[in-house]
Amino acid sequence: SETADALRESEQAISAANRKLAALAKEQNEANDKLGQLKAQSVKVARDIEAQQLRLSKLLYRRYIDGGGQKEYLSLLLNQQDPDKIARNLHYYSYLSRARMDDIDALRANLERLDALTLQSREKTAEIAAIQARQAGHKKNLERQKTEHAKLLAEISRQADQQRKEIGKLK
After folding, report:
1. Are 45 and 114 a contacting pair, CB within 8 Å?
2. Total-model pTM
3. CB under 8 Å to 107, separation ≥6 — which residues?
């Protein structure tokens, strides 16, 4: 009954290898889903960056054409307008300046986010490659166990044939 024990162990090993392969396939699917999400986020952030860069480039171009904004401040003071109106306009200019700085800060944040997403994507890709390597190893192990199982079945079949022949001779 050594062969029966060996056959049972072989079947258990094959079953365990199949379970491990199924778990690895699930893990790979989850990693692929996460990679897809990371890529979608990267595309969205890249679009946001492109829009922000376009907006800032137009703003810089207008500022360059208008003389860098220095004329605006100087003309306010030299036009001899109402001091309250000058103060109000300067306050508005400070709002615009802060909004520009917020745009630049948002652009920097998006660039950092894109870098982080790129790094996470590389890590996920490496994780997927590692999972695939482990799957290949487990598949090889499964094939080896199936081969051993087939040998055991052939041995059992040979023993059964031999026992039938012996029974036939004894009759």
Report:
1. yes
2. 0.62
3. 49, 52, 53, 56
Tokens representing 97 are 């300046």
Neighbours of 41 (CB within 10 A): 16
Closest of 63, 140, 138, 66 to residue 96, by C-alpha = 63
Amino acid at 151: K
Binned average pLDDT, 10 residues per bin, the chain of 171 residues: 76 84 88 90 92 87 68 65 77 83 90 90 89 86 83 85 88 73
Burial of 16 (0-12, 13-18, 19+ CB in 10 A): middle
Give the closest residue to 35 by CA, choosing from 132, 112, 134: 132
Tokens for 58, please give them.
Answer: 């137009």
Please check whether residue 110 is in contact with residue 17, taking contact to mean a CB–CB distance below 8 angstroms.
no
